[in-house]
């Protein structure tokens, strides 16, 4: 067990990250997870999926003091019962986890720019999202993403931040895109926001250019503003303390 990580998740959102490797590694996954990797539509998606599933297990194992293959993770979808839902720690339901991926754009970005980040905390249900600014530059984005209180984002980075904050909140609430992103504003970092279903959430932007992030990410997010990220907690207290685990953990 990493006592540092086990202690940190009590009052921080702790982040682990890694680049997506060039090969698929199934050695630490269970049968259901292997099936999800095999079902991927492309080799790149298979590598991305395997990397995310593995990093979730490694981060949980570091906090729980066990081996990664021994961690029981339930991914039952609350809507359809499939095994593609948000991860839940079977033996420790008070340990909350979220995972997000950044994918390279075909023909434009090298594989080293694909990556995965995992968040663990005991504070409250957590949601994490990372977005490239190019991903929100499509016709109709405003109609499917913006609440009237969001206004009109000034540029691609502003649009990406709106989307990252909303996705993080929806993940923290465990509802995903079953709730329309247009039904609530993105909110401001550090300000508790009430949501249409009566719940509350607090969101923070992640500084991917900060030294702690740059030392931990393991993949290239490009220049400032090209990639943004946000983390949210399903709670009513205005504090999100974030800590990056050093590169190489776990």
Q: How would you explain this protein's 3D organization?
A:
It is a single chain. The protein is of the alpha+beta class and 250 residues long. The protein has helices at 3-8, 31-38, 43-64, 141-145, 156-173, 211-217, and strands at 13-19, 73-74, 88-89, 96-102, 115-121, 126-132, 193-194, 200-206, 227-233, 242-244. The chain has a single domain (3-244), classed as 4'-phosphopantetheinyl transferase domain (Ribosomal Protein L22, Chain A). 26% of the residues lie in helices and 20% in strands. It has a 4-stranded mixed beta sheet with strand order 4-5-1-10. The chain has a 4-stranded antiparallel beta sheet with strand order 6-9-8-7, with helices on one face. Helix 2 (31-38) packs antiparallel against helix 3. The mean pLDDT is 89.
Quick summary:
With 250 residues, the protein is α+β, with helices and mostly antiparallel strands.
What descriptors fit this protein?
250 residues, alpha+beta, four-stranded mixed beta sheet, four-stranded antiparallel beta sheet, 6 helices, 26% helix, 20% strand, globular, 4-PPantetheinyl_Trfase_dom_sf, 4'-phosphopantetheinyl transferase domain-containing protein, transferase, 4-PPantetheinyl_Trfase_dom
